[in-house]
Amino acid sequence: MRKLLIISIVLSTFLYGEKMTGKRLLDKAIDVMNPEDSKATLIQTIQTTTGETRTLKYESYSAEEGKYTLMRYQEPARVRGNALMMKNYANDIWMYNRRTRRVRKLASHAKRQNFEGSDFTYEDMGTGDSWKEDYDPENQGKETIDNTECYHLSCTPKENADVAYSKMVVWLRTSDYYPVLIDYYKDGKLFKKLLIKNIENIEGHPTARKMVMKNVQENSQTIMEYEDITYNVDLDKSYFTERRLRR
Question: Which domains does the chain have, with CATH numbers?
Answer without folding.
Answer: 18-246 (2.50.20.10)
